Write the structure tokens for this entry.
Amino acid sequence: MANPTPPYIKLSNGDVITFEKSGPKLTAVLSNSEGVLIRKGNSLIGSTEKAQANTIILEYPSPTPTIIEEVLAPPKPPPPPPPPPTEIEYSIKGKIVDSTNPNKNLPGVKISLNIQNDTTSNSNGEFTLKGKTTPDKKISVSVSLKGYTPQNFIPYYGDGTIKSDLGVIQLQLIEKSLEQDKIDSTLLTDSQINGLTKSIKTSSSFLQKKLTTSIINVKSRLIPLILTLIAGFGVTQVNKFFS
């Protein structure tokens, strides 16, 4: 008998085990040296050829034949590594001015990216950031200058492409931001104050008045003091954190 199509296993008694595959099922087929079918093994899912062959060999009466030749299917090669992420080139420009005087360009402003790429604005307040990124590394831009409130930008359009121009960026002096914060902190209306005091049930009108006075004092004195202290660390526009 000519060699069968691999994979196959030849036994010492002349019998040959071949294999049939139907979808995920594998079946061992035992034939004699003339190619006459002797029997088939169980159709199993996930079994290997060697395991199927051993099952059939163990069913032989004594003496059990031995394997004299085996030509099994080579193992499947590992899947290829995923392709490297596609690099995206970006070039982002902009111009930075003083918010109180838009005709005043701001040179020396630090413009940084979260992917370790930064530059400074030139004498005209202009800057350009160039580099490469990948879709899984979203970039953000931060703009900062001593004495001014820093700003952050996510330079993407709605379709996920990177913007090429941030336009004119107006930086606000910390003192101006602090003034606005103090104004915002005093915008608690009388009706809101009255609502707060009435929510605390008490039969004493004197206590009601004292509580109202205390809230007004907190609003007009303590909150501006806190805002002044944290402005020293460059933190302003606090009301945005609560919106």
About this structure: Residues 175-242 form one domain. The two ends are 85 Å apart (CA to CA). The mean pLDDT is 80.
